[in-house]
Write a structure and sequence with these properties.
It contains three helices and five strands. Strands 1-2-3-4-5 form a five-stranded antiparallel β-sheet, sandwiched between helices. A hairpin with a 6-residue loop joins strand 2 and strand 3. 44% of the residues lie in helices and 27% in strands. The protein has one domain. The chain is α+β, with helices and mostly antiparallel strands.
Amino acid sequence: MGGRSSKILTPSFRVFVTTAKKGLFSGLSTAIFHEPDGMPWAHIIYLSMLSKRERLDLHDQIVEFLNQQGERTNDPPDAILKNLRRFLEEQDVTREILLNQEPIMSRNEALRGMIKVIEEKGKEVED
């Protein structure tokens, strides 16, 4: 099992969330991009002690959190990202959370990660 990607479409915002490796020797991290312009919203780097499964579970929790925020509020993106930071800090699972900055993972890298996830899912179905 590779990474994971999700698209969140709410009345307040649209984002693309991807959890993938940046490189061969790096662990999974999560990047969030604003749709449709692809501007980076956040990059979340997890503690090295977290397993791949735990990081993928966090991806799902982040997606659920953002979806709820987008459905329930009309807060500006900065407020939503501050809430996300607070949510993650309470869980004590991150090494670094970069908000509205140049991502460590580019949009092209995220899309390649998404394609890889889709290809791997196809292989699982064939088996």
